[in-house]
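A brief tutorial aside. Many learners find it easier to grasp structure tokens once they have seen a single protein encoded end to end. The record that follows does exactly this for Chaperonin 10-like protein. Read the sequence first, then the structure, and try to relate runs of similar tokens to stretches of the chain.
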Amino acid sequence: MAAPKNQAAWLTKAGTPLEVGDAPLPTAGPGEIVIKNAAVAINPLDTHMQDVGVFVQQWPAIFGCEVAGVVHSTGPDVDRFRKGDRVIGHTVNLVSGRPQDGAYALYTVVPADKAAILPDHISFTDGVVVPFALEGAVCALSLKVPGVAMPGVSTPALALPYPSLQDPTPSIGKTIVIYGGSSSIGSMATQVATAAGIHVITVAGAHNFEFSKSCGAAQVFDHKDPSIVDKIIEAVTKSGNVFVGIFDAIASPDTYAHDLAIFAKLGGGHLACSHPPPADVPENVKAGMIFAVNDIATPVWKEFVTPALQAGKIKCLPPPLVVGKGLEYVQEGLKKCKAGVSATKLVVEL
Ligand SMILES: NC(=O)c1ccc[n+]([C@@H]2O[C@H](COP(=O)([O-])OP(=O)(O)OC[C@H]3O[C@@H](n4cnc5c(N)ncnc54)[C@H](OP(=O)(O)O)[C@@H]3O)[C@@H](O)[C@H]2O)c1
């Protein structure tokens, strides 16, 4: 039988549109699988990669962080997957720079430790919203020792426990505030923290209160509310738990000003940010920027993701908005992503 043909949405130069064309069919090395992609998702990071070439190590480039599809082949030392398995996977082009590790292709290499079986009742377009946000959430919550996010910027180290399959999850007596409860990474962090027994208070648009609560938030506050800082301080205090800190998934000057005002009243804590943290944080605030590719997530991928999806303990949220079918639609998805989304993830079916 003739080998299948691969195609990719190539970026040949920063600031130019993607070009769909032939690509070599990747092979799986040790600890890797090749996935025949059925759906890929689009993230804000991808728009920066296209615009300015940030993180691109090799031209022309194939980027994109997450895929859902069927295992096409497995490399040596892979025993959790077989050809034909339905899976989701977190792609690592961001760190490896290799084109075969980018999502925007018909076939992509994924480390087996960053993949999980997708239960039969979940579609590929739903499942593909999970991988990048899930690993980002674990990086935001569970690192024990600060690492390097980028030169001169350390990662946060909140050392919170991994999510558990226990239902209901027993409380561990800790409260976290998540700024951006309706964003992709903020809503997944809400689900993951809730599944770790943490009391979660989020900040989202008023139209997304119910959405954030469906991810596990105990209380949600409107980011446009002028008294939001006081309300969050009151809610954290009333929770009666130890205040862990804030995961700021929005990381803008406004949200940072609110974060620091909250810390000033609550005696400091951890500030995990999706971008470099503010300069000059007080000594009682341990601030860092998450970097969403880290082996800290391996036990979660191996032991938690599939049964959690099966049981509905982790839901495929925010829901996908399918932009179209075919690699040609990735460019359209990137354009829509730049325009901004609310409680949704842009997905391209293949
Ligand atoms: N460092 C890393 O490893 C890493 C990993 C993943 C993502 N990121 C970064 O994290 C950020 C979020 O990514 P994402 O994919 O989760 O974004 P997203 O889903 O595209 O974010 C959209 C959401 O942001 C919310 N939002 C906007 N302004 C807000 C504010 N002031 N307060 C609260 N919520 C606000 C909107 O809420 P409403 O519609 O409810 O108003 C909307 O639902 C991006 O900048 C991304 O580049 C970094």
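Self-check: The chain is about 30% helix and 25% strand. If you spotted this yourself, you are ready for the next section.
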